[in-house]
Protein backbone atom coordinates (compact mmCIF):
# COMPACT_ATOMS: atom_id res chain seq x y z
CA UNK A 1 0.00 0.00 0.00
CA UNK A 2 1.30 3.47 -0.91
CA UNK A 3 1.82 5.89 2.00
CA UNK A 4 0.93 9.57 2.07
CA UNK A 5 4.44 11.01 2.06
CA UNK A 6 5.37 13.81 -0.30
CA UNK A 7 8.26 11.81 -1.76
CA UNK A 8 5.84 9.02 -2.63
CA UNK A 9 3.40 11.02 -4.73
CA UNK A 10 6.29 12.83 -6.37
CA UNK A 11 7.68 9.44 -7.36
CA UNK A 12 4.30 8.48 -8.78
CA UNK A 13 4.30 11.62 -10.93
CA UNK A 14 7.87 10.96 -12.09
CA UNK A 15 7.01 7.38 -13.01
CA UNK A 16 4.47 8.74 -15.50
CA UNK A 17 6.14 11.94 -16.74
CA UNK A 18 9.82 11.69 -15.87
CA UNK A 19 11.92 13.91 -13.56
CA UNK A 20 10.12 16.91 -12.04
CA UNK A 21 11.58 20.09 -13.58
CA UNK A 22 12.79 23.16 -11.69
CA UNK A 23 11.77 26.80 -11.96
CA UNK A 24 14.00 29.72 -12.95
CA UNK A 25 15.39 29.95 -9.40
CA UNK A 26 16.44 26.29 -9.39
CA UNK A 27 13.61 25.28 -7.07
CA UNK A 28 11.82 22.02 -7.86
CA UNK A 29 8.20 22.39 -9.01
CA UNK A 30 5.44 21.16 -6.71
CA UNK A 31 2.66 18.60 -6.99
CA UNK A 32 -0.87 19.77 -6.23
CA UNK A 33 -3.67 17.33 -5.35
CA UNK A 34 -6.55 18.58 -7.47
CA UNK A 35 -9.31 17.29 -5.16
CA UNK A 36 -7.33 18.36 -2.03
CA UNK A 37 -7.30 14.72 -0.86
CA UNK A 38 -3.68 13.72 -0.21
CA UNK A 39 -4.68 10.07 0.08
CA UNK A 40 -5.81 10.17 -3.56
CA UNK A 41 -2.56 9.71 -5.44
CA UNK A 42 -4.10 8.73 -8.75
CA UNK A 43 -2.04 10.33 -11.51
CA UNK A 44 -5.14 12.17 -12.77
CA UNK A 45 -5.32 13.93 -9.39
CA UNK A 46 -1.72 15.17 -9.47
CA UNK A 47 -0.96 18.50 -11.12
CA UNK A 48 2.48 20.05 -11.63
CA UNK A 49 2.63 23.71 -10.48
CA UNK A 50 5.14 26.32 -9.35
CA UNK A 51 5.20 27.14 -5.67
CA UNK A 52 3.59 30.52 -6.44
CA UNK A 53 0.74 28.78 -8.31
CA UNK A 54 0.42 26.24 -5.51
CA UNK A 55 0.24 29.00 -2.91
CA UNK A 56 -2.42 30.91 -4.85
CA UNK A 57 -4.58 27.81 -5.33
CA UNK A 58 -4.67 27.13 -1.59
CA UNK A 59 -5.07 30.82 -0.72
CA UNK A 60 -8.11 31.08 -3.00
CA UNK A 61 -9.53 27.97 -1.33
CA UNK A 62 -9.04 29.49 2.12
CA UNK A 63 -6.55 26.78 3.06
CA UNK A 64 -4.31 29.14 5.03
CA UNK A 65 -2.59 26.26 6.84
CA UNK A 66 -1.13 25.01 3.55
CA UNK A 67 -0.17 28.58 2.62
CA UNK A 68 1.54 29.01 5.97
CA UNK A 69 3.59 25.87 5.40
CA UNK A 70 4.64 27.12 1.96
CA UNK A 71 5.37 30.64 3.19
CA UNK A 72 8.68 29.63 4.74
CA UNK A 73 9.89 28.04 1.52
CA UNK A 74 8.83 31.18 -0.35
CA UNK A 75 10.67 33.51 2.06
CA UNK A 76 7.59 35.66 2.59
CA UNK A 77 7.89 38.70 4.83
CA UNK A 78 7.14 38.44 8.57
CA UNK A 79 4.00 40.57 8.02
CA UNK A 80 2.70 38.19 5.34
CA UNK A 81 3.41 35.16 7.52
CA UNK A 82 1.68 36.84 10.47
CA UNK A 83 -1.38 37.55 8.29
CA UNK A 84 -1.54 33.91 7.17
CA UNK A 85 -1.21 32.69 10.75
CA UNK A 86 -4.06 34.96 11.88
CA UNK A 87 -6.28 33.81 9.00
CA UNK A 88 -5.45 30.19 9.81
CA UNK A 89 -6.42 30.59 13.48
CA UNK A 90 -9.66 32.44 12.62
CA UNK A 91 -10.63 29.68 10.18
CA UNK A 92 -9.99 27.01 12.82
CA UNK A 93 -12.27 28.87 15.23
CA UNK A 94 -14.94 29.35 12.56
CA UNK A 95 -14.81 25.65 11.63
CA UNK A 96 -14.98 24.64 15.30
CA UNK A 97 -11.57 22.98 15.17
CA UNK A 98 -9.46 25.33 17.30
CA UNK A 99 -8.04 23.64 20.41
CA UNK A 100 -8.84 26.74 22.50
CA UNK A 101 -12.59 26.26 22.13
CA UNK A 102 -12.95 24.58 25.52
CA UNK A 103 -12.77 21.20 27.27
CA UNK A 104 -15.98 19.79 25.74
CA UNK A 105 -14.74 20.56 22.25
CA UNK A 106 -11.30 19.15 23.03
CA UNK A 107 -12.86 16.00 24.42
CA UNK A 108 -14.87 15.60 21.21
CA UNK A 109 -11.68 15.97 19.13
CA UNK A 110 -9.94 13.39 21.29
CA UNK A 111 -12.82 10.89 21.06
CA UNK A 112 -13.00 11.29 17.28
CA UNK A 113 -9.19 11.12 17.02
CA UNK A 114 -8.97 14.58 15.43
CA UNK A 115 -7.07 16.40 18.18
CA UNK A 116 -3.73 17.79 16.88
CA UNK A 117 -1.95 16.74 20.07
CA UNK A 118 -2.67 13.06 19.37
CA UNK A 119 0.00 12.91 16.69
CA UNK A 120 2.86 14.64 18.48
CA UNK A 121 5.47 12.28 17.07
CA UNK A 122 4.60 13.24 13.50
CA UNK A 123 4.75 16.94 14.37
CA UNK A 124 8.12 16.45 16.09
CA UNK A 125 9.52 14.68 13.03
CA UNK A 126 8.25 17.45 10.73
CA UNK A 127 9.88 20.12 12.90
CA UNK A 128 13.16 18.19 13.14
CA UNK A 129 13.19 17.85 9.35
CA UNK A 130 12.53 21.58 8.92
CA UNK A 131 15.32 22.39 11.39
CA UNK A 132 17.75 20.05 9.60
CA UNK A 133 16.89 21.72 6.28
CA UNK A 134 17.19 25.19 7.79
CA UNK A 135 13.55 25.94 6.99
CA UNK A 136 12.12 26.20 10.51
CA UNK A 137 10.96 29.72 11.31
CA UNK A 138 12.86 29.66 14.61
CA UNK A 139 16.25 28.93 13.05
CA UNK A 140 18.39 30.29 10.26
CA UNK A 141 18.50 33.59 8.48
CA UNK A 142 14.76 33.56 7.78
CA UNK A 143 14.01 34.24 11.44
CA UNK A 144 13.21 37.97 11.60
CA UNK A 145 14.60 38.16 15.15
CA UNK A 146 17.95 36.80 13.96
CA UNK A 147 17.99 39.40 11.19
CA UNK A 148 17.34 42.23 13.66
CA UNK A 149 20.07 41.00 16.00
CA UNK A 150 22.56 40.59 13.15
CA UNK A 151 21.81 44.16 12.04
CA UNK A 152 22.09 45.45 15.62
CA UNK A 153 18.51 46.71 15.42
CA UNK A 154 16.73 44.49 17.96
CA UNK A 155 15.08 46.59 20.66
CA UNK A 156 16.97 44.62 23.29
CA UNK A 157 20.15 45.99 21.71
CA UNK A 158 19.13 49.57 21.08
CA UNK A 159 15.72 50.95 22.02
CA UNK A 160 15.28 49.02 25.26
CA UNK A 161 15.71 51.66 27.99
CA UNK A 162 16.72 49.02 30.53
CA UNK A 163 19.62 47.94 28.31
CA UNK A 164 20.86 51.52 28.06
CA UNK A 165 20.55 52.06 31.83
CA UNK A 166 22.52 48.89 32.50
CA UNK A 167 25.22 50.03 30.08
CA UNK A 168 25.31 53.46 31.76
CA UNK A 169 25.37 51.91 35.22
CA UNK A 170 22.22 53.80 36.20
CA UNK A 171 19.74 50.91 36.36
CA UNK A 172 18.14 50.67 39.80
CA UNK A 173 18.93 46.96 39.92
CA UNK A 174 22.61 47.93 39.94
CA UNK A 175 22.63 50.46 42.73
CA UNK A 176 19.45 51.78 44.35
CA UNK A 177 17.15 48.77 44.12
CA UNK A 178 14.91 48.85 47.21
CA UNK A 179 16.06 45.43 48.33
CA UNK A 180 19.67 46.59 48.26
CA UNK A 181 18.85 49.25 50.86
CA UNK A 182 19.55 47.78 54.31
CA UNK A 183 17.14 48.63 57.12
CA UNK A 184 16.84 47.49 60.72
CA UNK A 185 13.67 46.33 62.43
CA UNK A 186 13.12 48.43 65.57
CA UNK A 187 11.45 45.48 67.31
CA UNK A 188 13.89 42.59 66.86
CA UNK A 189 16.99 44.40 65.62
CA UNK A 190 17.28 42.26 62.44
CA UNK A 191 18.82 43.96 59.40
CA UNK A 192 17.98 43.14 55.79
CA UNK A 193 16.78 44.39 52.40
CA UNK A 194 14.03 47.00 52.53
CA UNK A 195 11.41 44.99 50.63
CA UNK A 196 11.70 41.82 52.70
CA UNK A 197 12.07 43.74 55.93
CA UNK A 198 8.88 45.67 55.26
CA UNK A 199 7.08 42.41 54.46
CA UNK A 200 8.22 40.39 57.48
CA UNK A 201 9.29 42.92 60.11
CA UNK A 202 8.34 46.33 61.49
CA UNK A 203 4.56 46.10 62.10
CA UNK A 204 4.65 42.42 60.97
CA UNK A 205 7.54 41.43 63.22
CA UNK A 206 7.02 38.15 65.05
CA UNK A 207 8.19 39.70 68.31
CA UNK A 208 4.97 41.76 68.33
CA UNK A 209 2.94 38.54 68.42
CA UNK A 210 4.61 37.21 71.58
Helical residue percent?
A: 40-55%
Number of E-type strands: 4
Strand order of the largest sheet: 1-2
Q: Output the radius of gyration.
A: 28 Å
Give structural notes.
The structure is a single chain. The radius of gyration is 28 Å and the shape is elongated. It contains nine helices and four strands. It has 210 residues and is mainly alpha-helical. The N and C termini lie far apart (81 Å). It has a two-stranded antiparallel sheet. The protein has a two-stranded antiparallel ribbon with strand order 3-4. Helix content is 43%, strand content 7%. A hairpin with a 6-residue loop joins strand 3 and strand 4. The protein folds into two domains: 113 residues, no CATH class; 41 residues.
Key attributes of the depicted protein:
9 helices, 43% helix, 7% strand, 4 strands, elongated
SSE arrangement:
Layout: H1 6-17, E1 30-33, E2 46-49, H2 51-60, H3 64-71, H4 78-94, H5 103-111, H6 120-132, H7 144-150, H8 161-168, E3 182-184, E4 191-193, H9 194-200
Helix pairs in contact: 2-3, 3-4
How would you briefly describe this protein structure?
A two-stranded antiparallel ribbon has the order 1-2. Strands 3-4 form a two-stranded antiparallel sheet. Helix 3 (64-71) packs antiparallel against helix 4 (78-94). The protein contains nine helices and four strands.
Amino acid sequence: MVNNSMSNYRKIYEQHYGPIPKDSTGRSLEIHHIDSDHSNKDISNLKLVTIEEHYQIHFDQGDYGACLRMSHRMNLSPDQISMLSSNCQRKLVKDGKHHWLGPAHNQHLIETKQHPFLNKDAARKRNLKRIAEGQHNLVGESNPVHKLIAAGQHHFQTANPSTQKIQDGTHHFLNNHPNKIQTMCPHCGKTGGAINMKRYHFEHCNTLKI
